[in-house]
Structures
1.
Amino acid sequence: MRLFHLLTLLTGFLLASPAHAQWQSTTYTLKGGWSSIYLSGDASHAAIGDLFPATVTEVWRWNPNPNQVQFTESPLIPSAGTADWSVWRRGAPADSSFTEMIGRSAYLVKSTGTIADTYTVTIKQSPLPPGSSWVRNGANFLGFPAFGTAATAPTISSYFNTFPAAVAANAKVFKYVGGELGPGNPLLVFSTGSERLDRSQAYWFSAQVVENFYGPVEINLSNANGLDFGRTGSVITAKVRNRGASPVTLTFAPVSSEASPTGQAAITGPVPLSRRVFNPLTLLWTETPLGSGFTQVIAAQSTVELQFGLSRGAMNGGTASLYASMLRVTDAGQLMDLVLPVRAQPASLTGLWIGDVKLTGVESKAAGSTGTTTPEPFLLRTLIHVADGGRPTLLSQVFLGQLAVAPHAQGVCTQEALLKQDAKSSATRLVAAHLPLDLVGAPYSPTPPQQGVLLQPVLLQPITLTQPGSVIFEVTVPFNDPTNPFVHQYHPDHDNKDPRGDALIAGQESYTLVRKCTFTFTASPPAGSTVSSGWGSSVIGGNYTETITGAHSEEISVSGTFELSRASEVGTLSQ
């Protein structure tokens, strides 16, 4: 089975992402009485009472309901106790049905005073990918990522040019202007051709439509959380659709995050984004740092696919560090302005790695023989487990599945008996057949250390991905081991027994073999590698050398390269 197909069958153990990463503040203008706001990002890091000043006494969140429920009251007026609305009241926790403000949601805010009173409130949010669901006939309370400020934003009709049903003659649009609820609040928008779309407000749309429209350009990401690379991701795809009848020019520009609010993970720096472009001549992907950004022209009513990567080598913080930023997308027509969250953490090598050593060089001991290159590469399956503290272990076999010990979590073990007996059918066994059975090899470290020789594992530590180093494993195959190539239990010259059946010592019929295997990890793929992304996170490797003692009167050296792919992130190896 090819390695790619094998890895797709393995159980993944991914690290959990923090609840929030990048941050951006939005300022809202409130009037005395009732105002509406729209949160494009998540603000659940703080309680509602801490986000708003004391002048705000109530906050109502509209809950889109896909079941087309019938209203007992106008949807323009909040009604407690229904599925359509959740309410927060200051100083009345018993009367409040929610306490945090989530993103991509429309809210009604009640402030003290009259329509003549104006308040401003700035809310720090963690941006979310854009999204909108028109799920009701005649009742959608929504906001949109319009370009510019309230005074310079596009008109409603121009923004909805690619979705005219929402503002057609038989549809109505309402906005809240402050004061008590009644005939004048919310106010009917009489001219969508002159009314500007305020990105900070939420509007009622009374239209017989069901859609997912949020802007004239739609962006669908391969990761629902945005450009979230986590610890192991290397590529995220964005499918960008132009809904309009004319070509559109988009600008993609990186934006740094604000400082994290109290209680949230500190941000080490922006994510070093890159753009991946396929070269049809070389049939390879090239990655270019995003820098100040790029532009992309999209033809009318068509879709393009963009790919984004990152330079993990530039994230030189510890494994606990967090890199977060945003990618701003604007169009040349100044209709839409949105940000995509971007997040990554330095790769952790903790877990199980599987791959192959590709031997391409063998030292010949034949008289007059020159050169070491082999006609074809020879593959050696390789299994290395890296513990939580960074210590690597070379394995000849390993099992992945539910462990026998409670709570029967998915784990990595070296013996079948350590698996949950009635769950073995879903477990996976991996084997490196060229190594002695049940080998669990720690890094080789002679005593006393050999002067001038680096023998400690220096690369298999999470923060040294950009610093090449080596780890050495010494594999000993005793002269009487069944896996020793000199041993054959059915051949009298290779059974380690004399004619009387007494045991012989090493060197009489067979020899003890010592394989010193050196894995030199590199910050970039070695020559001949076809890996185009993920190096240092989901794929690691470099150069391989091995010296073999005992197979010949002289020491034999072989060499090549190796690549390992992550099979699990479990750092505990059960033995």
Note: The chain has three domains: 24-206, 216-344, 351-574.
2.
Amino acid sequence: MPRAYKFITAVLALTGCGGLLITGETSPLMSLSGVVLIPGYYRFLKGQRHASKNVIGMLSVFTLAVFVFDAVAVSRNILLAVAHLTIAFQAIKSFDLKEPWDNLQVFFMSLLQLIIASELSHSLVFGVVFIFFLTMLVTAMVLSHFLKEGALGKVSLFKPVFVITVLTVLATIVLFIALPRESYRFLGKGQARTIRTVGFSDKVDFGSFGAAKLDPTVVMRIELDRDLHSPYYWRGLSLEYFDGWSWKHSLGSRHQVRRIGGEYAFSSYDRKAAVEQKIYLEPIDSDVIFGLAEIKSIKTDSSALLSDTTRDIFLRGKPVEGVKYTVYSNIEEIYPGIREEKYLQLPVGTERIVDLAKNITVGAKTDEERARAIERYLRNNYTYSLSTSPAPEGITPLENFLFRSKRGFCEHYATSMVIMLRGSGIPSRIVNGFYGGELNRYGGYIIVRQSDAHSWVEALIGNMWRRYDPTPPLSIRHPSAFTLFLDAVTMNWSRYVVGFNTTDQKRIVKTLTLPFGMPVLEALRFSGMRTLWYIIFPVAIFAFLTLYYGYDVWELRKKGFVTRHYLLFRKTLKKMGFTVLPSTTSGELRRGAASLKSLDDVEKFVTMYEEYRFAGKEMGPQERRKYRSLLTEIRKQGRT
């Protein structure tokens, strides 16, 4: 077996196992067997003796037992258990590569590993790994073919590998676009890890945003239909009950939002005046919907959206994969509300804070003036810091912030303002969401990270909720141009590959049928999958066949005379009753035609074919006449 073929086998095995490991979902302990691949393939490349049949058998049985234990007691997940099993089998197989079929088993196992990896991760890195795997697999197949034909080393590999790889990628793209988008996933729900967020559950511990402010993980990316000069407050969840240590959201009863014409509408609005936000939300451990307040309407493929009396909006469940939705908002920063006692609730022991509020608001005549006075006081007299020390015994964290340390982050400021507003008789609540984000000039969208998590205040003044933010402004560190470019590539990967859906398929159909203007196509334009199969798929197949046979014709024109007569030779033998398969080599034809009286002619013809087909020699006029005459004699033998 050629060393190059051995090397590619090792690379494919390592690529399959590496594709699983880079997802970050596999268990390091259960994947430890992958380390054995290195000595296994080192021995294989060196041509050392493979392991005995008994050892391989015992290891295989042991691996199956470990698989059952893994699925039941360790991973408790069939998909992860299968992933660990494939790594173990690849390790065992590296010591048991004897026949060509063994290499094909490695190729198949590597492909299975990448299929599993696609369920465990939607990372752009996986796309790079897949293209690399595809190229190496095609190279292995071409090597195998030339090895069987006895032409290895006589022809260049680059051209056939390149052309077949391109054709395979094109065919993959066609299938990816045309296959139906159904609401199922391989072996159940997707297994991609969700982002652990803070502040978006029914109960939020006071001070929990501190850790999130240090986390650069991207939570969502947002495209706006216009430039907004005001700061971006991506509203998430409102919390109204505070016991001195944690905030709670009174669920009440969630009701399903009515869907009209593919849109979840919360109130009437002017579409032209509303700001459109296309939001691409990463998988997070929260069911909260984010958007600029006040959200008037949402478009999404989700089967249902829920809301409650606070007008907070939720998905039916926490997303196990990215969610794409479009929000239409009225951003006047005020919207109607109802005065309720729960927005005036105060925990025990806040008398000192209430007295401070009264001193701050001396001279203020209206609720609006009182709210602005408290907001200014907190902004001007306290220092923003994530390095906060624990409160001394007997003092609450809020009292420690206001009267002792005077250092804290957004939750300290927002909570202090809510308590002082309530102490002044103004209904208010804390709101958790995200503030700002960085504009990616390469993609024209806004990147929102965990570090943008923020708390602010909504106060009910004149039966209208108004936003206040007592947290001092912060200096923003801008990412490098390369980081933004890489994120733009990731955004497009998530948008057009991971997030490709039925709506995108319909858009492609519309684009393809638009130039024709035919009534039948117009009727089919919005019919979804049927149109894709009737129009896109046949067109794609035609394009694929054109490319494939176009390359074949190009090859025939380049070596047309030799190849064309050899194909006639194969057809002649087939008519004479010989078994001639597409994979049948010239050597096999020579041996199969041994019974012919003109065997000497067959020997000479095949020898000339191999010499001029694979050695790259040009056939001159004299050789052409001899080559043609040999075929004529063989065909005469066939007719007799």
Note: The mean pLDDT is 81.
3.
Amino acid sequence: MSDAPHPAARSPHEGSCPPGRVVGRYEIVRELATGGMAVVYEAKHIDLGRRVAIKIMRAAFATEPSYVQRFVLEARAASRFSHPHIIAVTDVDVDGDLPYMVMEYLDGEDLATRISRAGPVSLPALADLALPVISAVAAAHSAGIVHRDLKPENIFLAVRGHSRAHPVLLDFGIARPVTGHTGPVLTRAGLAIGTPHYMSLEQLNAAADVDERADQYALGVILYQAATGTLPFDEDGPLQQAIAITRGPEPPSERRPSLPREFDSLVLRAMSANRTDRFPTVRDLGRALWPLASAFQREQWGEEFGDSVGAAAPRASVPPPRPSAAPEMTQALAGEAGPVRVEVKPDDLRGLPALEDCSDAALRSLLEVSDAYRFPPGVTIIRQGAHGHGCYLLLAGAVDVVKVSDNRTWVLARLPAGCSFGQIALVDNLPRTASVVAATESIVLEIGRDAFENMLAGIDEVGEALRLHLAIAGIRHLRRATRRLATLLGHQGTRGPGTDSRRELVYLQAAVREWALPVEDGVKGDR
């Protein structure tokens, strides 16, 4: 190292690039993200007009050979991979004294932003997001590269067209070779490198032989955080963090009871303090997670993580998963039947008036991002007070809408096949205002929050149909609720609020806050 002042002591904004500046053959458009050593900008290729992301080293670091070498090695490490879930680096060069690398431009948000914005990720959706990332990390390990800084901020959920979120692994800035390495070692002995909350015990202890299992530990922390919305440990310093890791985290299901035991098992194993107790490889972690993914993703990743292409049975190393369900669903009591996943076809969706005119291709796209469940009579589909994680389409059977208010239980309505419920909690980010219980054996299609938001924002057939359904249902039911409320208030002025009026007011309160609950059903008297 030189005797120059440490770059971190200089202004963090030194050498920032204003819009319009030309770097190499790229014109800066705007700043996208900033880090300790570099800044990422949106830029466009001057000749081609193509949008790119360009990462430019800060001027304060560009005078330090070791930092420049690390920057170049990051570009080389990322460019070595041809993997659909690793950021593509297309160029690396120096403009004046500033090294820069050019990457594909991605629309979307990182996983940290997704968790902060929307809370915990439902388990099938989390497994669907994590398997591509695990595949990307496994590819890096196969090439002899350990990432060493896996965290939600380095997992980008790209939006490409109208497809589901496409996870992309970013930032190989502190990656290092672990096999056949003969180049310079840029990490000084005794220096812990990484982000503390995601660092394994061996990283915190600055061990010289940090290997692929450190990335596995970080993946375990990411799975824990995404599933529960909280970090397993939130200690202030490295010593306290190391003590907490040695003690071990509480199972994820202690913080979110709907999580199954096999998820607890795989996360706690990946986060073992002793790296010899973790899975042999991250691909083995993927094999343990694979049975918990959606049917579409199990087929997609069956060759890499399953027993065979499209295989449905989990490997013997993981207990068979109990029926998975959305976070607000109530699990059945021991010995009772609970929700069971079932397969549905496009024609099964046409029983819903909103979707009857959609093409097979559009309905298949909907089925790829949703899950269907069969519920026995009496099993709760949505719990009152739970935060909304899904919109539900009732394909067969009937459900009761049940609300508890003032220690009374009100059965507000019975919804037949073809109805939808639960979506307003996603639109307005509200807790569930009532429970929904299967009155008969029912088949329900769950559309998770992310898929629901993508469909509402998209321009495909299903998105347009759902938007129209929401608008019509909202206007129609709120108009009827307003008329009914005026009638009830008039009755109260003459004879006081009796039990029937109280029940109807409770119903109206729930119906107004839940657009898809028909006001006529269960309301007696004048309409």
Note: The first strand starts at residue 22 and ends at 23.
4.
Amino acid sequence: MNTTRIAALLTLCLGAIGCAAPEPPAEVADTVYTNGKIYTVDHAQPWAEALAVKDGRLLVVGSGADVEAVTGDDTQVVDLHGRFVMPGINDLHHHGIDLSTTAMDPNALAIPDEQKTSPETIVAAIREFADSHPDLPLIFVEDFPDGMFPGNNGPKEMLDEADRDRPIIVLSSGGHAFWGNSKAFEAAGITSDTPDPEYGVIGREPGSMEPIGGVHESAMQLFWALKDRPSKESIAAGLRHHVARINALGVTAVRIAGITQDHLEATVAADKAGELNAYHSLAFHWRTSYIAQREQDLDLIREQILESRGFATENVASGVLKYYADGAPASKTSFLLVDYENDPGNRSQLQMDEGLFQEEFGFWTENGITTMTHVTGDAAARAVIEAVESAQGTHGKNGVRHHMTHSVMVDPADLARLKPLDMVVDVSPAVAAPMSFHDAYKHHFGERHEQFFPARGLIDAGAKFMVASDFPVGPDSPWSNIEIWTTRMNPWGDKEGTLGAQSAIRLEEAIEAATLAGAYGLYMEDEFGSLEAGKRATFIVLKHKLFEIPPADLSETEVVQTYFNGRLVYDASRDLGSTARQE
């Protein structure tokens, strides 16, 4: 019997003649975790030293004595050895399923980052892949870095050097442009006579209508149409790979930005089979560059979005859609309140008719559907805010928390408008630090570049502020992201200095933005996001104590274990052995 319990028993029995056996605990934990440094993200009790778990939920969060009271003969006891414990990370913008599906596709090329240092190294990698895959009708390449070419318009003749006989299409890292070779333009039917599609751009040679080699926004559909969509089987395999990856990083919940019905069905099937070790919120493509804009397609997808509310399982939910309000900074398709630097008259545009934009926000709000809207420019942010204000003026909030993602530029006058609307706002990807591609941004935005990603302003305005990765557009390590938001410095030493240092936030704010605030954005704040009795036992054990290491070392944080709904789903170490309780 435990010595603490013996001492308590002797005290109670002292002076008595005979003593009845102690009452067993009213509730007995399945597992208790003791001797930890536990950061709960619960404002009422920020720190604890022990957890007790029963049936996948937290029974007790408190002291060692607190969990001792619910420890029975068969309770498993885990000594944390002083490790740092916190809630699992909730990443509100992620593309990991598609990335993993592509990475596992032998017919697609994912070039390692170290080979993407120049256009020449990319072309060399594509040429090697093309030579080793002579029977492929199309060569699809995962990405080229944003800002590598002016306006993200890579020259098609350069790609011709890799293969002249088959279409080659290379997605930009931000996902808002394609770079194609001459054969790709021929297959897509794009010539100097082809007008820009509505809300899309075909890059042209200066002073000419001849396509350079880049297509942007809705024009990307012309290239997407050349590529076969992944099968359900490949999506399921990609999902398994994706979940294992995020668990190793301490991520236990994601919102996947841009899915189809096949993704929804594969994810629900995985959860029903007990194979989904992370909570997934799935946002359908809606008027994005990935889907066609034909009315019959939109009618079908609209019905799928409305019906997806009924697909919810324990760890999967939908009833969410992904919009584009505007484009990308590198392509000068971000919608701005003020003209681009050195480009008078160019503010870009909203990615759809403003009246239709507001009408659709009303429709989705009325039907209880959450919009997840891509916003990079300050005019785009204002358009979203005004659309939500209009929708709520007609339909009320209706329980909907509309989600504005990226939030690269938000005018200071608009920050205070977010809280009354109960909107959730993520800043992503975590590129709010000096990086090589920012040189192109400075050319486009001038001094406004230092105002990118106004994290400090969002928090001070009381907005529901979340951090997200937008992986693979940005790094998927939450620890690199947290370092960036708290220091506004490059965590890899690639560039010195800071970007927008006035917008840095405190570590405890960054952790809450990655945990409890993220759970709020998923409508799951009563289930996870903080370590409180009654919530799911979803937490992570770290090698490093976050509040005791220099801010510049946060990116080095390592995850030792990840627990999801009380189950150990990732274990990097055998140091934390667990043993059955011994009397």
Note: The chain has three domains: 3-88+564-580, 106-224, 232-527.
